[in-house]
Design brief:
The protein is α+β, with helices and mostly antiparallel strands and 644 residues long. 53% of the residues lie in helices and 18% in strands. The strands form four sheets. The protein has a six-stranded mixed beta sheet, with no helix packed on it. Strands 1-2-4-6-5 form a five-stranded mixed β-barrel. The longest helix has 28 residues. It is globular and about 85 Å long.
């Protein structure tokens, strides 16, 4: 109980998370039955004198927490399937709108009414939409079109879009064309949103004016959270170097800004008290959150660091771990589904790693040179965060940046300089000469970051791919990790935890080796024909002979290579026969079908309705063909076959 009183929210938040997560698998009635049985057991133990009155009260209070998590989940959860409307009219309120310069802008809205036979049917379904129109938050529009459930294509290595949007209580999507909508009422963004929108536009204009075009996209991504100007090449370079997080405004940026502000304000300690300095830092931090359009990651990070910083200055008995879990508790109570948000998981695991491991790691080495010691301390922060986020990164993104210590150290230093110069530019950029001078320094630093990232990426073996970690292995890794850190008797006996770590590493590497050396045939769930044949570390990708199909093939192969590494060769398909003697595979391609003769079976992929079904072989249909429920379609997901 002593540990509970020191860090109550560590236990409370953990129990709340258990309640929320388990509720996805257990019905509410089972939860209530389990709760009543547990309460009855506590009461009986008290009557029999096994536990004391204080323990009974504590047990009853703590047992309510997971039940609260279950009730919160059931009150906010959404079904797996979204609504489906075909060529229907509906009235929608725009809730969020992408501020980028993309042709098709992404937005989130709520359908208020469905127009059904001249009647209005009320609903509150939140949907994702894409529009080429100049819509704004708060607009009330009537539009007509299809509303379809968000589905995954279930191709190897692809991002779980359905799960991502489900965590935001969104299940369906639609497209709003230029001519098929009517604005019923223009939204009033309000004074606050208008202020931040104008401020964001002003800052964006300053960057356009003073930052070189080649690094302008990086500047806007780091300073404003606008990634619309980033090229695919730049994104891939940062991802391969393990520094993609610097391009998404999040906890790193908020933490650096707070650190820089506190460092500067401490120089004025004679005229500014710690409490007033804290207020200034918090105000600027939340202003920055507004400039980034109150993106969930920035709001989450601002709340987390505000509580951490506030508890440090306001409490004599400061407990960072308790403050961290308290901020998570608030976010989960507001939105229980945030637990499944990848950004939430990564940011809190990174902070947990820093709080639990940073001091232990930094003590391994002490350097008398102050600069080298600061470099080592920065490296220790990166290592501590990486230890806790790596298993989750392998699970979601299937790759590991081998030189993360090098890239993170350089990125943290350069990101600090960029954010500092960016804040100065925003403050004085309207003064022409000052703006030019600061812009010159900012541009130089951005070029230095870009060249540094490209250098790290160019080092052989910069990124390891092929990881396909299961959820069970992920849970095992984190259980063992926390046991080693938190259980002293276990931590002090390396001969106990050493073999555990070795076994986990071997399991991960064996799984990766199997993925790298497997022979595999894949028909992808794509509206354009894309098929791949993998033999060891060589991948042959066949696609319809047109540019759109090639772009789809390149995207699909980019995801596929993350889980099945190999060198890809793209081969356009023309009508005729293709033979792959190395793996005893051949194709016959026509405008109506693709016939595949594999090692021990034959497949017929139907591309048009005129293609006739063949008996005695496996008939598969392209996802755009409407067929009977008893037929096998790629709409159900990619077809993956192992070639022995």
């Amino acid at each position: 109980m002593n540990q509970f009183y020191k860090s109550p929210f560590v236990f409370i938040t953990t129990l709340l998370i258990i309640g929320v997560i388990s509720s996805e698998m257990i019905a509410i009635w089972y939860w209530l039955i389990v709760y009543l049985i547990f309460v009855a057991s506590l009461v009986r133990a008290k009557i029999e004198g096994v536990i004391k009155t204080g323990d009974l009260k504590g047990g009853l209070i703590l047992s309510i927490i997971p039940l609260l998590g279950a009730l919160l989940f059931y009150s906010t959860t959404v079904a797996d399937e979204g609504i489906e409307l075909r060529d229907s009219s509906f009235i929608l309120t725009v809730e969020e709108m992408d501020a980028s310069d993309k042709v098709w802008k992404k937005g989130v809205g709520q359908i208020n009414f469905i127009v059904d036979s001249s009647e209005l049917r009320a609903t509150s379904e939140r949907i994702l939409f894409y529009s080429r129109n100049e819509l704004a938050e708060g607009d009330l529009i009537m539009t007509r079109g299809d509303v379809l459930p968000i589905e995954n294509n279930d191709n190897p290595g692809e991002f779980d879009a359905k799960g991502y949007w489900r965590s935001k209580q969104i299940r369906s999507m639609t497209f709003i064309g230029r001519e098929n909508y009517l604005v019923l009422e223009k939204g009033d963004p309000g004074l606050i949103r208008s202020f931040f929108k104008g401020l964001r536009l002003h800052f964006s204009t300053l960057l356009d004016r003073h930052v070189p075009e080649k690094v302008l996209g990086i500047a806007k991504a780091i300073l404003l959270g606008d990634k619309s100007n980033l090229s695919l090449e730049t994104r891939n370079s940062f991802a391969n170097a393990g520094a993609m997080h610097v391009l998404a405004v999040s906890g790193l940026h908020v933490g650096i800004i707070m650190y820089l502000l506190m460092y500067v304000l401490q120089r004025f300690s004679r005229v500014l008290t710690k409490r007033n300095a804290l207020i200034v830092v918090l105000v600027i931090t939340w202003l920055y959150a507004g400039v980034t359009n109150f993106s969930p990651s920035v709001v989450r990070a601002s709340l987390m660091f505000s509580i951490l910083l506030g508890s440090q200055f306001m409490s004599k008995q400061h407990n960072s771990l308790n403050a961290l879990f308290f901020s998570a508790f608030l976010l989960i109570v507001i939105d229980p589904l945030i637990i499944w948000d990848i950004g939430f998981q990564l940011s809190y695991l990174a902070m947990l790693g820093i709080l639990l491991l940073y001091k232990k790691i930094s003590k391994f080495i002490y350097l008398e040179n102050l600069i080298l010691q600061r470099i080592w301390e920065g490296t220790s922060v990166g290592i501590a965060a990486q230890v806790f986020t790596t298993p989750l990164s392998l699970y979601y993104f299937h790759q590991f940046p081998n030189y993360f210590m090098i890239s993170n150290l350089g990125v943290m230093v350069l990101a600090g300089v960029i954010l500092g110069l960016g804040l100065i530019l925003f403050a004085v950029g309207s003064i022409h000469m000052l703006g030019k001078a600061i812009g010159l320094l900012l541009g130089f630093t951005l070029f230095a970051m870009l060249y540094f990232i490209q250098f790290v990426e160019s080092i052989p073996g910069s990124v390891a791919t092929g990881f396909d970690t299961s959820s069970y292995l992920l849970l095992t890794i984190y259980t063992c990790l926390l046991a080693i850190i938190l259980i002293k008797s276990f931590r002090e006996r390396w001969y106990l935890w050493g073999p555990v770590i070795a076994v986990l590493v071997v399991l991960i590497q064996l799984d990766r080796y199997q993925n790298m050396t497997s022979d595999e045939f894949v028909l992808f769930n794509s509206n354009k024909l894309v098929v791949s044949v993998k033999k060891g570390d060589e991948i042959l990708c066949f696609y319809e002979d047109n540019d759109k199909a090639l772009r789809q093939a390149e995207r699909l192969m980019g995801d596929y290579q993350k889980v099945r590494p190999g060198s890809v060769s793209f081969i356009p398909l023309g009508e005729g026969d293709y033979s792959l003697s190395k793996i005893q595979t051949s194709f016959k391609y026509t405008k109506d079908f693709l016939e595949c003769l594999l090692v021990d079976q034959t497949l017929l992929l139907h591309r048009t309705y005129s293609s006739k079904k063949k008996k005695g072989i496996q008939n598969i249909y392209m996802p755009y063909l409407s067929i009977g429920s008893d037929e096998e379609s790629l709409k159900q997901g990619a077809l993956i076959l192992t070639l022995d």
